[in-house]
Amino acid sequence: MSICRDRHGRGRRGVLMPPTLPGSLTRSQFFDMLVIANARSIRKGFPSVADWEFAVEDVPPSDPAPWERQAPVLARTFTGRAGSGLKPRVVLYRIPLSMRASNRRDLAKIIRLALVDQIASALGIAPTDVDPGFDPNGF
Fold first, then answer.
1. By C-alpha distance, which of 31, 97, 33, 24 is closest to 60?
2. Which CATH number does the domain 26-62+70-130 belong to among 3.90.228.20, 3.30.750.24, 3.30.2010.20, 3.30.300.30?
3. Is 49's pLDDT higher than 70?
4. Are 98 and 35 in contact (CB under 8 A)?
5. Mean pLDDT confidence for 114-126
6. What pLDDT is stored for residue 53 in this prediction?
7. Is pLDDT of 54 > 90?
8. Which of 22, 52, 128, 131 has its CA 20 to 30 A from that of 13?
């Protein structure tokens, strides 16, 4: 899909941005790309999450779980149950995370922090065990 320009209201004239350039990605596609890249990176460095699933939803459900605080939910972890065939899953919420970032670089850092934090809390370990370079104040 390429982005076309409409110069002076005369209809579509030409390609503004070829589909091979990163500017042709929508915000949600860019967010998904960052999640995939970070999930791959974490899987390489921390093989115990190799079978985990990573998902993206736009916003969290309007009815929070009973154990969740009233703070905004940025991500959620669902642990898999033995014998049920369900794998552990980390769900990142795109809009709340995107609203906290002032640019694309900050968004990449926030996504990494959210993934590492969710994995570490689900496994009951320190975030630095999942990602040795983890810095919660890394902005």
1. 97
2. 3.30.2010.20
3. yes
4. no
5. 94
6. 94
7. yes
8. 22
∠ at Cα 94 (93, 95), nearest 5°?
A: 105
pLDDT over threshold 80, residue 66: no
Higher pLDDT, 65 or 131: 131
pLDDT at 38 over 90: yes
- Supply the pTM of this predicted model: 0.77
**How many angstroms separate the CA atoms of 87 and 74, rounded?**
20
Supply the DSSP string of the chain, one letter for each residue.
Answer: --EEEEGGGS-EEEEEE-TTSGGGS-HHHHHHHHHHHHHHHHHHH-GGGTT-EEEEESS--SS--TTS-SSPP-EEEE---TTTTPPPEEEEEHHHHHHT-SSHHHHHHHHHHHHHHHHHHHHTS-HHHH-TT--TT--
Strand residues in 18-138 grouped as ranges (E):
53-57, 75-78, 89-93
Tokens 């985990």 map to which residue?
Answer: 52
* Cβ atoms 59, 96 nearer than 8 A: yes
Predicted local distance difference test score (pLDDT) of residue 132: 87
